């Protein structure tokens, strides 16, 4: 029973850790959407404790206060008719490390690329983050450019490089840990076990002598 419990606990911890890392990477790494820009505007937005983690620091963009900010937004539509709203905030030097300081220029570019359904102009919006309407959370657009069409193929080179480097780091850490365990922990455990065996042997010999002494007395 105890062995099964610890096995379940170990796998539960691994799954939770994997989901946390996967969610963190999915939120942070750049994503690309091919959309049609329908509107650009500024709006005073209240940032509360429940969604402040998804917005930039107050001193990184166009914030007017710690709770109410003048944030730029970009309304878009996909080829299938679904809509998406992006915020347009500077990230500064804080996390995630996009070092974005050109939200004004990006807003001007997005405005210049607006189009209607009759004469669509398709645009690649590079962004990070999630759209969670229940928490008023929007992905942050970090770049826009005109696309060749709604079916343009985009290779996420940044994501590939980051994931390959991350996999390399994980493999190296695992190898270093295995070597540390083999060269340090296992010999130390063997020494402790050998020392304990010696103690048991000496204790056994001592008690054997005591028993023999009492036997001779009888």
Supply database-style keywords.
single chain; 218 residues; alpha+beta; OB fold (Dihydrolipoamide Acetyltransferase, E2P); 5-stranded antiparallel sheet; 21% strand; elongated
Q: Overview of this structure, please?
A:
- The chain has a five-stranded antiparallel β-sheet.
- It has three helices and five strands.
- It folds into two domains: 122 residues, OB fold (Dihydrolipoamide Acetyltransferase, E2P), CATH 2.40.50; 50 residues.
- A hairpin with a 5-residue loop joins strand 2 and strand 3.
- The two termini are 48 Å apart.
- 45% of the residues lie in helices and 21% in strands.
- The model has no long low-confidence stretch (mean pLDDT 84).
- The protein has 218 residues and is an alpha+beta fold.
- The longest helix has 61 residues.
- The radius of gyration is 30 Å and the shape is elongated.
Write a brief structural summary.
The protein is of the alpha+beta class and 218 residues long. Helix content is 45%, strand content 21%. A five-stranded antiparallel sheet has the order 3-2-1-4-5.
């Amino acid at each position: 029973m105890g062995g099964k419990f610890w096995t379940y606990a170990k796998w539960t911890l691994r799954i939770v850790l994997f989901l946390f890392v996967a969610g963190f990477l999915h939120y942070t790494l750049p994503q690309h959407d091919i959309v049609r820009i329908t509107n650009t505007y500024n709006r005073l937005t209240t940032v509360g404790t429940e969604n402040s983690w998804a917005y930039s620091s107050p001193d990184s963009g166009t914030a007017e206060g710690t709770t109410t900010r003048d944030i730029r937004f970009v309304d878009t539509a996909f080829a299938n008719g679904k809509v998406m709203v992006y915020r347009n905030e500077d990230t500064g030097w804080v996390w995630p490390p996009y070092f974005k300081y050109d939200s004004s220029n990006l807003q001007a570019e997005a405005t210049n690329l607006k189009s209607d359904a009759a004469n669509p102009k398709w645009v690649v919006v590079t962004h990070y983050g999630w759209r969670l309407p229940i928490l008023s959370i929007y992905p942050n657009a970090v770049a826009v450019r005109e696309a060749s069409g709604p079916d343009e193929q985009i290779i996420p080179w940044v994501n590939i490089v980051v994931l390959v480097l991350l996999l390399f780091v994980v493999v190296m850490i695992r190898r270093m840990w295995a070597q540390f365990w083999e060269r340090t922990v296992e010999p130390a455990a063997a020494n402790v076990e050998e020392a304990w065996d010696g103690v048991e042997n000496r204790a056994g010999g001592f008690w054997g002598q005591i028993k023999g002494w009492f036997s001779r007395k009888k």
